[in-house]
Amino acid sequence: MKKICFVIMGYGKKTDPLSGKTYDLNITYNKIIKPAVKKAGFTCIRSDEIIESGIIDKNMYALLIQADLVIADITTFNFNATYELGIRHGAKRFATIVIKEKEGAIPFDISRNKIFSYSHMGNNIEDKEVKRCVKELRELIISVDKNQEIDSPLFYHIPSVKPYSLPENEYNQIIKNLKEKEDSIFSLTERAEFEMSKNNFTQAKKLWKKLVDKIENDQYYIQQQAFCTYKDETVKPNIALIDALRIISKLEPDNRNTIDPETLGITGAIYKRLWENNKMEIEYLDRSIEYYERGFTINQDYYTGENYALCLELKSEVTHDFDEKTYLKYAAIKARKEIIEIIDQLSKEEDFEIRSDLKWVYATLSHCYLGIKNAKKHKVYSDKFYELNPLDWQKATYEKSLKQLKKIHHTE
After folding, report:
1. Domain-ending residue, one of 177, 209, 227
2. What is the largest CA-CA distance in the chain?
3. What's the whole-model pTM score?
């Protein structure tokens, strides 16, 4: 079972009683907390995802006491959130992260905690700030989980106090029951991800749609619905792709201010598939290149970068202009060398080997080295990719791009 991070915070728009400023806390959760938690390899649960009434029940107490990690956002000093933080500090020595919008004072003593601060504009958070926070919060989560330093004021000052603990079988049963709860957000998410792991994109698509209908404008759920829609082989390919394009358009990928690499990557993938199904429509490939390039150049995102390089080479195969063909091949090689440098820097990070996206890092390196004609290193990273036991759809995605690359470089 994946480690669980339980998030305690207010929901929706709440007003800070000290500053009088109103913040949409759902934006904090959806844009910063949930992505950072997932990138750190944890299952993310917020209390409203397991209960409907807002009342603290057995499930919430169990998670407060036993969850591997708790993140408490005390922005606006929501009464429930601060009460639940007190329970956590009284029950567990370590693995609690307190976060807060940077403005305003802290009206109670949690001085033992390092407060992770972020800047919120009220109705939105700047993309640059989102990018910083997701990266730094992910790193903090991994560090806190690894070091297990006491962060509870109670256990720091009175170390002889015994922490509370649920019997493991009882806690596991509670988590199992939450996963099976018919219409809870947590249950639907777990079931959707399970169906994806079994290549059942038809059912996964329906579950993500339920989540999109439940939670308006949730970026992650919209991305997953679009992804499963274009992967659904029970629908005619072009129809599935147009449906997926309609879904991902909710996240405004055409807006030049949209910098989320996942949104840009999914949009690029949809247009790439449209081109593969309609080879005469070169504009589809051009659009794919555009979205992948934005994801790569804005975010230095290795995965969209490799897809950008591959699409450049695919276009070089169909253009009749010699100068354009030369440029596209050169740009692809240049991009791949840059991607290798980016990943080389990532590999120096302490938590590199436990990255949740490690299999895609290896898949990308495998493709990049093949693209620059280094067959030895291509094989090394291909082997590393398979050693991580990728899901069937992940293998199919990797092997499809690999086949295209081999055809371009005449190595089949």
Report:
1. 177
2. 77
3. 0.85
